[in-house]
Structure formats: structure tokens, C-alpha cells
């Protein structure tokens, strides 16, 4: 594995005025970038800044509109991912390009040149995974693995090609702090071997911790190149966002009222073999509180949201109560009628229908709770378009939703703006209970801070707010209480001030003995 | 030849076209393409095979023509759904309707003619085994092909690299594309393989099962083949088992009707369907296995973003 050679002092990969147009939209605008041999280079930027588009061009997934890519000083045309791998570029995607129905070894074999038998692949994969501290069972089906384990497959898959440059796209967004630490150790090993790493992230802290140099993108343009260790988080954020991001003022320890949302020994069997069962979940949210539920994706967050919102009602009404009323067996509209509001994750297709205008999306969510206002004609339920449009305009104004036209299709809004709308859609009703799942996932910093402030304000005004999130920064910004979900079990609730990241990290993974390696391999074998 | 032997022989003849057509559709669906036009491709194969046999006098030319006809006809489906990204369900239904119509035209001059039957080929030594010999080793070419297809497809899907790529495309075509696998090209080949198998199944109908041309002689077998694929959880050996079970119950209920058992014939006629559904549900009760085997991108169109 040591035929990685530094080609003098020149950059390993150089990008010269690389541009990508999608129709009239410029995703990447004349980007310049140098990656030196043996460095960890950060690519920083907000969502939608053009980071993903840039690396897709480097990896041959997208073809550049104009510009040049130089590999070891030679101009190259990277026509396909296979071509990228041939010259020595490996990539670990943000959304894993894994095949759930196939085994770990089969997944790895797919990206290798032909002529290698499956058993050889399995052998080599376990060897590499041991070498880099990434335990994996080659015969497990991907569908049965945790997100962290899936990322290891991606990394091992990239390493099998013996690449000189490895691109990692937002690798820690799905990891516990401990898993992230382990990843950083792996990256340090790669760097020590003389390989280069292009590390894409919007988390300033980890960029400062592990990266040698950083290139910052905003709106498709390079806005800065720097040594992240010489910058402050605030100066990096300014380069990323272009202005200072408003800090969220926390809900603090104001007056607490009655318990408005409660789960009592909530137990739900897994709906499908790949879903997580909820085991004896107990939680209470009082008026004035923001309870944040931390956890790594796929540990029962969606199932908890489904049970609390009534998307999938539970059999025992007493398991969930809203404003003191047993509601476990009620559907989502019935729960809205007794004063609750819900914002599911996945803006596109779950929280909103992308092809429908904002006003229709408003009616879809609130057709029962606001029946008298939005619908006319008695039993016919004819939509009062004028009233609904007015309401959606009001929401857009309150939440500062930037859109083209008066009532555009939900799908035409950027992620941040659509998210502001669907959160605003619930806040507009002043619900006494609000349950939000991943409120700012994939949302730019400006919109995220707007949404978080709105959640805090709602709690201050006397509502109970429950936020399910994977983002610890967000949790510490908004929460008054924190609990951690892991494998369908919920930890005790702690006051937010009493917790540190490390403690949360331990609760995320440590509760079920997943922190040491042997337990983790056993976990992989369990399937 | 004993009574039981005779019955078993008819079972094999009835099951073979189902097994072949199902296997072809299985490969197509494993690549993520839902082609509901099996019935249409099958009847096209039957008509073309019969016509070619009449023209040349050789049923072997008929078999080849049936295969080629089915594959070419499926190419139309491939072009519409893969290149033009038309809706797969609607296009498949249209293919069936078109196939039933066009095959009527092709077969019209041959209606009522007596056909040439594909003759059995005895396999030396094996054919002399008592009981099993005449059943399994004194059969026609298409029967042997059907068994080789089961073994071959099972090997291809689960042991070969090309089969792994095909399953990967069926599971997640976007990821497969990102890995540099040719999604559209592989799907074209899978669709054409499905068409070729349906054509071969059709050739079996007009050259072995009932060696003559009758309009709409496929009689819904294409639909049964489609259902078998799903109930067999996209696994070749289960398709074989399901096809033979269906064939066996259909033939026994015919005999039962002939014997005049006091059960309403409508009930007896429904038995093969009921029995196949029940048994295949029983063997696919393990939802995890079923989920792992179900092609996740089945029926979803793929357009590479360039």
C-alpha cells in the first residue's frame, strides 16, 4: 500500500476555473482549488454553496461545463467514476451509494476491477478494515447495518483501490462524537501514508481540528483559502455565510407549566424488518420546555415521531397523552384538533408535496384543524382558495420565506426556505404542543437560526416543544432538556446545562456496549 | 406407459412454459424493470414459431424464430420505457394488447393447420432409467432448456459478477450509475432476455403443448408467469417449484373433472391458483428474506443526470 509518491512540490490535484451550469443556474463559478500531496484539505460551505457539485465533477459523476482539472500537473478529463478511480481518486459519499439488499463483500466487489473473486474481496476487506480500525463483517447484509457501519464500508471500498486522493462528503453528519473521533484517527493514518484527503464539511470545529488547509465556497464561488487553525470559528463562518449569523437566544429556565406532552411506557413493535422497535419510552414535556432528543440516525427517531404524531397510532391510548388527554389511538388530524402540531422530517414528499403550490400544502396539513376557516360548502369541503392563499402569504412573511412568485410549487423553493414554510405552517396555529423531527437538516445557517429561534419563542410563549435532532449544535442551542435515543430506547431526561457532548456521545452509543470493538463486531454478526 | 407417468408428462408440459416465461421476467425485474407484457411477448413467440415452422418444415427453426421474435418485440418495450422513459406499467399492458392483436395477424394463414411437433430427444443411458428416464430424459429440447435456464440464471445472479451488477441496478440504480455500471444498457439486455424467454415459452405452446395455431392460445399464462415471479420472491428455484405446482394442480383438476367427482368445476378450475398462492405465501413468510430479494427500484424509471 505504499506506492503513493509525492510528485515534487506541485499539487496532486489542481482545479482551474471549473464551472458547472444547470440551465441558467451557475452551481460552480470559475472555481480554483489546489490539493497538495499528504494534506487534509477542507472544502467548507453552506448547503447549496456548490460543494457537492464540485466534488461530483472531480469524481466524474457530473461533466464540467468549462474549466480544467489537472492531476499531478497533467490536464485530465474525468469522464466517469471508474475513470476517477483509475487515476487514483476515491470517494465516500454523503448519501451512501450502497446496495441495501447486497452483502458488504458484494457491495465492495462492485466497485473493484473485474477478475477478483468474491471470497478474495471479503478477505481483503476484513484485512483493510482491521488495519484502519474499521471493524466490518463482510457477509452481513447492508440493510442490517448501522449508519456508522455503512460509512465504514464506503471507506474500505475507497481504500481497496489504493487511492492517492480520498474525497469525504460530510462524513461526520451521521456519526456519534466517538465514531467521529475514530474516523479522524483513520484519516490521520491515511495522511501519514502520504495520501491526500479532501474533507467536505460545514462543521467548523472539526475542520479546525483535523484539516491543514481550507477552501471556502459561497454561492458557487471560492470566497477564501486559509489555514483553518489560524482562523476563528466566527471568521470561518463569515467566509461561509457572507455575514454574521444571528445567535439563537435560548429558552432558558423560564416558568414551567403543566405537562402538555407525555409518553408512558411507549412500546411499538418494528413495522418492518429494517425498522426499529420502540422499547418502553417515557418522556414528559412541560409548557415552556424544549425537550431535544439526540441520537444517531436510525435509532428509532422516525418511529418515535410516528407514534407521537399519530402517523402510525398505537393501540394503547394511554401510551401518548396530549394536554392530559389519552391520544395514543388518535390519528394525526385528531391530535392536531386537541392542540398539537407536527413537522416531519423529509421536506420533499413527506412534509410537503413538491409539485403542489404552497397554499395546497397548507390545506393538506391543516384541513381538519382549520376546517372552518379553510373549507366551505359544509360537507362538500370546498377549499376557500383566497383564504388559504392569504394564510400561506402570512406564514411566508412571518418566517421570511424567499420565493419566486406569489404561490409557487413547494418543490421550487430552496431547502431552507421550504423548511421555514413547513415549520411556519404549524407555528401559525400557535399549537400548545409541537413535535419536530430534524427541523434544520440540510438547511443553510441563516434559515436554521431563524427556525431555531421560532421554536424557542414558541416554548417561551407557553407551549411544549419536542425536537428530534442529530445535530448536537442545534440541540445545545434550543434545548432546555435533553434525552438520548439509542436502539429504540430513550435515556432519562437531563437538564441541558448539566450535559456535555461527551456525555451525550456516551449515551448515544455506550448504553448498549457499542463502544468497544468486540461488541461492535458482535453487533454486525447479529444479523 | 402407466397412467401416473402419462399424467406426470402432461404436468411437465404444462409447467415448462410457465417456468421459462417466469425466469425471463425474473431477470428483467431483478434489473428493476417491470414488463407486464409477458402475455403479449409469449403469444408473439407462439405465432412466429408456428409460422416459421410451417415455412421451413423444421420446428427447430421455429424455436429460434420464437426466441428472436419475443426478444425483438420486447425491444419495443425497452425503447419506450428505457430510452423514452414511458410509464412501465402502461407500456407493458399496451405490449400485451398489441401482441395479442399482431399475433392474430401473423397466425391467421395458419389457423386450423396441423403443426409439426418438436420431437423428444432421448439422452443416452439416462433415458433408460425406469420411470424417471421417460419422464425427464426423453423430453423435447425446450424442456431441457428450461432446466438449464433455472440452473444458469441462479448461477448468473448469485455467483457471477455480471449478475451482481444486475442485482445492484435493480436495488439502487442511482448508486449503480455512480459506480459506473451501465444501467440503461444492462436493462435493455435484461428486457430482451425476458422477451426471448417469453418467446421460447410461446414456441413451446405452439410446437409442443398443442402443436397448432389458435388465436390467443397463451390463455393468460403470461399473467400467471408474472404472478409466479412475485410469489417466488424473485428466486429461480422457487419459480421452478411454483411453476410445477401450478402445472400439477391444473392437470389433476382436469383429471378430477374427467372422473366426475362431485365438486363444482368452477371450484376445481380455481384450485391451481389457490394452491400456488397458498404454497408460495407459506414459503415466503420470512419477510426479511423477501425484502432482501425484492428489487427496490422495480418499475422506477432511470434518467442519468448529466
Automatic annotation (TrEMBL), chain A:
- InterPro entries, alphabetized: AAA+_ATPase, ABC_carbohydrate_import_ATPase, ABC_transporter-like_ATP-bd, ABC_transporter-like_CS, P-loop_NTPase
Which species is the source of this protein?
Answer: Shinella pollutisoli
UniProt family annotation: Belongs to the ABC transporter superfamily.
Instruction: Output one GO MF annotation.
Output: ATP binding
Matching SUPFAM superfamilies, A to Z? P-loop containing nucleoside triphosphate hydrolases
Which residues are in the ABC transporter domain? 13-244, 261-512
Lineage at the top is:
Bacteria, Pseudomonadati, Pseudomonadota, Alphaproteobacteria, Hyphomicrobiales
Q: What is this protein called?
A: ABC transporter ATP-binding protein
Report keywords, A-Z.
ATP-binding, Nucleotide-binding
Q: Write down the Pfam families for this protein, in alphabetical order.
A: ABC_tran (PF00005)
Q: Which domain of life is it from?
A: Bacteria
UniProtKB/TrEMBL annotation, chain B:
Membrane disposition: Multi-pass membrane protein
Entry keywords, A to Z: Cell membrane, Membrane, Transmembrane, Transmembrane helix
User: InterPro entries of this UniProt entry?
Assistant: ABC_transp_permease (IPR001851)
Keyword hit for Cytoplasm? no
Q: Does the keyword Cell membrane apply?
A: yes
Where are the membrane-spanning stretches?
31-53, 60-86, 141-158, 188-210, 267-283
The cross-references to CDD domains, in alphabetical order and at most eight, read: TM_PBP1_transp_TpRbsC_like (cd06580)
Where is the protein localized? Answer: Cell membrane
Which named protein is this? ABC transporter permease
* Biological source species: Shinella pollutisoli
Top-down, what is the taxonomic lineage of the species of origin?
Answer: Bacteria, Pseudomonadati, Pseudomonadota, Alphaproteobacteria, Hyphomicrobiales
